[in-house]
Amino acid sequence: MRIKLVYAIFLFLNINVVFAQEHLTTYLTLPQELTKNANAVVRLHERDIDVKAVDDLEITERRIVTVLNENGLNKIRAVIWYDDNIKVKDAEVKIYDKFGKQIKRIKEKDFKDVSAVEGGTLYSDSRVKYIDYTPVSYPFTAVFTNTTQTPNTAHLPIFSPVEYYLGVEKYTYTLRYPSSLTLYKKELNLEEFGVVTSDAPGRLNYTIENVNAIKSESLSPSEAAIKPRAYVTLNKFSYEGIHAEINDWNDFGVWVYQNLIDGRSKVDAATKVKIESLVADASSDKEKAKLIYEFMQNKTRYISVQVGIGGYQPIPAAEVDRVSYGDCKGLSNYMMALLKVAGVESYYTVVQAGDEIVDLYSDFASLGQGNHVILNIPNGGDDIWLECTSQKMPFGFIGDFTDDRNVLVVTPEGGKIKHTKKYATEENFQETTGSYTLNNNGAIAVDVTITTKGIQYSNRFYIKDKSDTDKDKYYKNYWRNINNISIDEIVHENDKENIVFTEKVKFKADAYAVQTGDRILFAPNALNKYSSIPDRYRKRKFPLKISRGFYDEDTYEIKLPSDYKIEAIPSAITLEGEFGSYAFSITQKDDETLIYQRSIKINDGEYPKDAYKNYRKFIKKIVKFDNAKIVLVKK
């Protein structure tokens, strides 16, 4: 009797599980409110992370996604990263049509299996399995299941259920771990999205349900700042066979130094002699560092080398010295070794690099943060930051790849959170000067000089190394407000000492001005026109974030055709506000010469979402005034 009862209960539960999955694999049961703004909807995502021991991690995942259109294909996320230490125990994708009928089954052996790193990477065993599926029609539903096992417990998956243009019906995240270990968490925006949390010794669970798809908005904070996320790590973990106990960034720095760097920052006697000779006449540590940095840039080139403790350990400095190449870790470590020879203090530094500014969380230490390595020279409290992967970057300049963010500086005594250089609005400077002649057919001949500093330097100095063809294309696109450009001359000067980039360009263009009867109409601002108006949102959801401000000054001399006179000319304008300032004026030097002067400053900062409408109005005014026309009439 008891056996029959157990069997009945098992059968009942099994039927309910099957029914639940069938319910989720048909489009007909999808709550329609979740499809608004969505390219796909997660019907159910169950991620189960089981830390069985300090060196035993198993991750099981089931993800059911209804794909609504072509743009939602990548939301299936049927991707598995693995290497020699990550074993794929099973993987499968089942495809269902609109009505929930299974139409395809993709087994693990049918997944594409390729190297997970780019062609310029050496010695990596990292690979990725993924499906390459072309649907017959939309909508359809994909059910992806997989299990992986690894002895590495340093990287625990993050809870990150919400993406742009993705609805979420239900998403659960469960972490189990030995209760003898301490769990550290960094939770962001959970309450705002209604995430339900259950936290007890040895078990953590997050659940989120019925989240409508959100649209991306221009000039928003980083995704990490606005979406629900939780980062987790344990105080004890194993990585590539190395055990660690880390409670904060200081502990983390000690671990990195002792296990990844110590003993690898040495060069041979011949190189020591070269460096000592190179800096023999230098009068300061900064001058020594500059000489050594330029030596390193001229000697080495960047290439990704994914070897040594999971790709986190730099190859020895002596090896970089021998082969003259390395990745960010190897080149930074090599530079540190050379500076050591000269008696200059410097430190290996971990950073989350990219155009988007992302901090390392100062109150949450984990191996998963940071994707790049640079070098820090304390310089008596006036920090110098060195990007060691570029042969072109000026000494002490880091540009928009690693600026203005929290980083981890690794010292023998432990890790320290520091903040990299922030380039102030006025430092991100561009000056455009020159002249152009307008003839009576509306054509112009231009002689212009553009000078940039700060982040604007970072955005432009690379132009110097383009081919002549690519330079021609670049400037035609830069002045795309002018048709039929013919470039006559391009001269570049990269002053790395003062970190100033200068461009001198001469070009001609037919029909810049519009002729109508006896009149010619043209915009005096031909050479630095603001034309991009931010998108309009009826109900904006996120704050306005301007990560980097800038400041432009323009002065042009405009030669008018001698057989025309001025009929109408725009009045001078000055705008001042919280987002910045704008001004332009036109003065008459003589009967045939005008002087156009313009300045624009956009302030960085984060503003409430309600401020976005006023910011958009401010930019619209700038665009309008930049397009203001002068009217000439025949004499």
Describe the protein's architecture and organization.
- With 635 residues, the protein is an alpha+beta fold.
- It has 3 domains: 238 residues, Sandwich (Immunoglobulin-like); 174 residues, C8orf32 fold (Roll); 210 residues, Jelly Rolls (Sandwich).
- 19% of the residues lie in helices and 38% in strands.
- Strands 5-4-9-2-1-10-13-12 form an 8-stranded mixed beta sheet, with no helix packed on it. An 8-stranded mixed beta sheet has the order 27-28-26-25-32-36-35-34.
- Helix 5 crosses helix 7 and helix 6 packs across helix 7.
- The longest helix has 23 residues.
- The termini are far apart.
Number of domains: 3
Strand content: 35-45%
How many helices? The count is: 11
Which regions have little confidence, pLDDT < 50, spanning 5+ residues?
5-19
User: Please, what is the average pLDDT?
Assistant: 93
**What CATH first level of the largest domain would be assigned?**
Mainly Beta
The main pleated sheet reads as: 8 strands, mixed
The main sheet orders its strands as: 5-4-9-2-1-10-13-12
CATH architecture of the largest domain: Sandwich
Work out the radius of gyration: 30 Å
Helix content, binned percent: 10-25%
The structural class is alpha+beta
Terminal CA distance reads: 112 Å
Report the CATH topology name of the largest domain: Immunoglobulin-like
- Quick one: how many beta strands? 38
- What sort of overall outline do the alpha carbons produce when their principal axes are compared? globular
